[in-house]
Amino acid sequence: MACWTLHAKLIEKQPKMPWSSSPNWRFYIQLNATDLENRILPPVFTNIHKRKALIECQTVDLMKRNQKIVDAHNEVVCLSNKAIQDLAVDTRAYMASLYRVGESIAMLDMISSFAHLVTSQEYTRPRLTDTLAIKAGRHPIREKIQSANFIPNDFYATEGQRFQIITGCNMSGKSTYIRSVALMSVMAQIGMFAPAQYASMPIRSQLFARVSLDDSIEANVSTFAAEMREMAFILRNISKDSIAIIDELGRGTSTRDGLAIALSIAEALIDSRALVWFATHFGDLANILAERSGVVNLHLAVNVRENGGVINMLYKVAEGPVTVQHCGLGLARIVSLPPEVLETAEELSTQLQQRTKRRQKASVTILRERRRKLILHLKEHLLHAQSGAMDGEVLANWLKGLQREFVVKMSAIDADHSGMKPSENDEALESNDRSSPVNGGNTGDICVAQRIEDHDTTIMVSRARTSAPWSA
To answer: Which of 169, 170, 224, 285 is least surrounded by CB atoms within 10 angstroms?
Structure first.
């Protein structure tokens, strides 16, 4: 049977003969195997391959046309390459000017983008100062995704509040909170307005972030190994001119080891005097470091309905560590875990919590650190007053109010720890303090005073006959 006859019969049964192409074959013919009724194709068809219900083949004429297409493509590539080389030779003398033009266009595009953002969004011009203070700050990306429901937050950090521990339930907004301050710091230092009602930013030379929890298959490291590798780099390079955000450190290992490592790293970050936002689920970490100078405890507030176990995320930062218990169990209830599993988990959680409370004992060391933190807080206020604009009667009234507040808080600390017996470790610490040149070996009548004299106004804040030193 002639090739054209076979082709005509195939066309009668299948008017639209499918054509296809591939990188290797270019164009080729596809025939339905059932239409051929087990007949052998004529010799005019070459490169015959059967794939399931299709037969793929070519003809010599089709192969020639495919080769012409390849040759034409190669010729176009060669001509294009020659044209580009000629253009490069002609413009080489003007390359410096072209670079300047490109940089100018990029700068114009950036400034235009800044202007468009500022005029279309509620952004403010940040002030560059020594204090980080942000009112109603927002995450610049998250607010674009959910502009109608995004809840802003305030930020404040100084030398005396440089290490901020952020606790809260799952999905309460901890990660968004710490990432917001990092992004706003970058935006302020590149000359951009910040997404806030008011923003005051210090100039910092470094920004460190440990936020992801992904394994690295390419580097052959686990989540915990990746955390430790990044934290080692941060600890080697961080300084007092740095900002760092740390999110959920220590979750990649056991709870005990994770808490121990997170606590030791937190101590090193506090000593670095950098501004650090440390988001964590370790409640013990917040309690242990609560009385350290420079440490502030914050949490993302939630409302929990005890009866139904409904959790309402407020996404608003509040002072102190998180007080809501069993947030994880509440979220587990939302995803409909079996009731018997939830009941057992609640019983075990309650038992563990009661056991922890029984083991907690008051310590002279905690008393000492609480007094020290209160005195450093007082010192910071007095230094601000000394360099501030208040004078005369206004300054005197403010200092008297500060004095009353200090005495009330110190009395409350003494009342909380009244009748407490020191442990062996506490006695060792007290012995070291008595021999310290800072305290002069005196733990009896110790007086902490700060005098500010302005327009014949003098105030002395003092506290005598303490049982432990108040030195900072």
So the answer is: 170
